[in-house]
Every structure is written in C-alpha cells, then in structure tokens.
Amino acid sequence: MPSRLLPDGGPLDAHHADTLRARRRTVYSQPGWNMSSRQPKEMRDAMRTPTSSDTVGHDDLDRLLSAVALRDRVAFETLYRRTSPRIFAICIKVLRDRSEAEDTLQDVYVTAWNQAATFNPQLSSAITWLGTIARNRAIDRIRRRRTVSLDETTVEEIVDESPTPAALAQLSQERQRLELCLQALPETQRKAIREAFFTGSSYAELAARMSVPLGTMKSWIRRSLMQLKTCLER
Amino acid sequence: MNTPASSDDKDLRCAEYVLGVLSDEERREIELALQQEAGMAESLARWQARLMPLNEDVAEMMPPSHVWDRLQAQLGWTRTGHRAGLWNSLLFWRWTGLASVVAACALAIVLTRTVRLHEAEAPRAGAQYLVATLERQGAGAAWTATVDAQHAQIVVVPPRDFVIAAHHSTQMWMIPPGSKPVSLGVIDPQRPTIVHVARDRLQQLGAQTTLAVSLEPQGGSPTGQPTGPVLAAGRVEGI
C-alpha cells in the first residue's frame, strides 16, 4: 500500500525527489526543493517544508496547467507530483481496483497533456478539471465492465458518512457550502447522492443497491440535484 | 434560444452526467451535445464546480512511481533510455528541447503544406470537396477532415502533439442529422489518415453531417457505436 498523504502535504516519495531535483531552476519549484542533489537523503528530508501544500494554492495549479498547454514538461511533472495523490484516490474510489486505477491515472495525465489547451481558468480550477477527467475515465471504465460484483462489505465501506465537523473545517469553503446544502436534503436522498458520486453507479445500479424502484431513484436524485443547485446559488 | 423547459432539462442532464448516474450511451449523447449545443459546456462546468468539491472527502493516496515512468514512456519522453545520468543532464535536455522545436517546426511546415495542397486542389476539382473542422471543447480546431467525394475518401489530420494510450485507438464517426453515429473506421492518432468511405455512405455525407472522433479500445469500438469519450466533433461544410 502506498503511504497516505497527511493533510499538511506529508511525505513525497523518493522517486519524485530524485527526478525533480535536477530541475529545481524552474519557477515552479518550491523553496523546500531548492537544494543540492549531493545532499544525503536524510538532510533533504529534514529540509522539506512541512507545510508545502499550504503554499500550493489553486492558482499555482492553474498556472501550471496553463504552462502545460504550452508544452512545458517541467510544469507537467510538477503538476503530476502535486495532484496525482488526489487524482489516484479518486480513481481508486470509483474503480475499487488498484491496477485499473493505475491505468486510469496514466490515461488522465496523458489526456491532461493532450488537452491542457482546453483548460479555461475562468470556468474551472485545475484540480476540478483533472478530477473531472479522472471521474469520467473511471466511470466509462466501470460502465464497460460486464459484471459489477461488489460484496456486502464493500458496499458498507462505500456508503461512507459525511465528514465530521472537525474534518469539514479542514476542507475548502466550496466543500463546506456544499455540505450545508447536502445536510438540507432528506437523509436517504443525501445518501443516494453520495453513493452515486463515489461509486459512479448508474441509476439502475443505485436503485438495485438501495432496493427502491428505478423511477423512485431517478426522482430522488433529480429533485436533490435541483435542490442543491438552488441552495448553492443562494 | 431555448425554451425555459428545454434548457432546464439540459441543465439536469449535465448534472446527471457530472454526478455519474447516466448509462454509457447517455454519456456519449451528452458529450456529442457538448460539442454542438450552445450553453452546454457552461452548464456542465457549473455542475462540476458544484459537485467536484466532494472529491475532497477522499483521502489522498500516493501512486506508485512506476505510473510516472509509464506515463513518460507513453509520452515518448524516455526514448533515449532511462539512465539517471542522462535524465539529469542539462546538456541532454537542452538538445532535446532544441530538437523538439526543430521537429515541431518541420512538422508544422509539412502539415501546413499538406493542408494548403488540399485547399489549392479543391476548386479545380469542382464542388467535390467538403471540409470539417473538428473542435475540441474550448480549444478551437483540433482534427481537420477534408472529404474528397470524387475519390470517396476523407483525409483526416490529427492535432499536433496528440498522444493516446497504447491500448486505445481513435475512431472516426459520421453522424447524419437525426441519425446514429456510423463508424468510418479507426484513424491514426498521430499522423494524417486517408479514410475510404463506401459510396452509399458517401451519399449521406452532406452539409449538416457531423464528423466526430472518439477514444475507443484498441482496434475500435466493440459495439459499433462510440463507447469512449468524444474527443472532438464538427459539421461538414462545402467550400
């Protein structure tokens, strides 16, 4: 299992440090990376800024992605290094399969390289843009699986709870606003929305899993989506 | 413009697409509509902004380093081997950078000349040529298709720097107004391809027909309909 990233950014693996240190001259480098490749690993570890992700704002990622559109490989690698743990997690969440998630992750970044020019910072943020590609790829993949066999325990695991107030406080303002609106939905419908989002299941699969008629599931979801929209626009 | 009801309906379809509850076929319909219908892209982007923050609930996971290695290999960045010494050599990167620029310029010249050639030939052959620019969402022209009716073929030129996974293919489709997509076959993702079109299909290929390129499993769609995301689409026009 890979190491989980701590909320503060956590450890970056040695591979990335190795491939990146040669290119620290780039403007995208963070201060924590600005060190000699001859320094022992321990020293490099010690010099890592513990709050590296705090300095990585969405604007930085947006600029990186815009640079990727201009065929900047260093920007691409930096973008990969900073965003792949989240994108990988999204792939695993939907696909429930490590090796498929790895393939999908690769696809996502190939697509990002090809289509970076379609990124419009006015319409979206880089992380949303990448997350969207990841979700679309992962959902397309599971739609093509002939049998979706999730045992009971997996289903239990998937229907996870909304974040605790403490956890929520760590998340973005957008996420917090969304949670307020989700909390305004009836509990079953909130569950259906979360289940749909995190499993990438179709209406039919959701209806079967939550043991309700297809029509009921459709109207739950549609009504909830419209309610969310109204709530978020308030 | 749209009636309020239909624009609400479209907005709801976008919401369902982003949430991920639509079937494979419905997803392809949305992707096609996205390329062709005004307001869809904005509607979709707004739903992404609304729902994507849910992704923050997922604990980050460091991917294994071989994914990055494979990614570089796929993008063709490790052709000269993956020795660390070379990888870290500034001189190597300088020359690679220079060589890439030269190659890109050469390619640009070749492509421009190819396209010019077609443009120049068109009027001489009479009204036998149709063209389509297949646009990628928000990115302007991507693929160009020149239909040569006389020879029943289409010359398709892919966008520069386009790379796809080894286990994928790009497939070309024609969609006559109000009809389902008809496959025109798998096209080379990187080089111009000449697509031969059956004569009876050619009759359907008039103005208002949409040409599209989708990403498919290697060898093309197993179902005869697009199964992967629509990469670009555009209408055929006379010249």
List descriptors.
heterodimer, A: 234 residues, mainly alpha, 66% helix, 0% strand, disordered N terminus, B: 239 residues, alpha+beta, eight-stranded antiparallel beta sheet, 7 helices, 8 strands, globular
Would you mind describing this structure in some detail?
The complex is a heterodimer of chains A (234) and B (239). Chain A has 234 residues and is an all-alpha fold. In chain A, 66% of the residues lie in helices and 0% in strands. Chain A has helices spanning 14-21, 41-47, 52-55, 58-69, 73-95, 98-115, 126-144, 152-158, 165-169, 173-183, 187-199, 203-209, 214-233. In chain A, helix 5 packs antiparallel against helix 6 (98-115), helix 6 crosses helix 7 and helix 11 packs across helix 13. The longest helix of chain A has 23 residues, at 73-95. Residues 1-56 and 151-156 of chain A have low confidence and may be disordered. In chain B, 40% of the residues lie in helices and 24% in strands. Chain B has an eight-stranded antiparallel beta sheet with strand order 5-4-7-8-1-2-3-6, covered by helices on one side. Residues 1-5, 81-85 and 119-126 of chain B have low confidence and may be disordered. Chain B contains seven helices and eight strands; from the N terminus they run H-H-H-H-H-H-E-E-E-E-E-E-H-E-E. Chain B has helices at residues 4-19, 24-36, 40-51, 65-74, 84-87, 90-124, 199-204, and strands at 129-136, 140-148, 153-157, 168-175, 182-187, 193-196, 210-217, 230-238. In chain B, a hairpin with a 3-residue loop joins strand 1 (129-136) and strand 2 (140-148). The longest helix of chain B is centred in the middle third of the chain and has 35 residues, at 90-124. At the A-B interface, helix 1, helix 5, helix 6, helix 7 and helix 10 of A face helix 1, helix 3 and helix 4 of B.
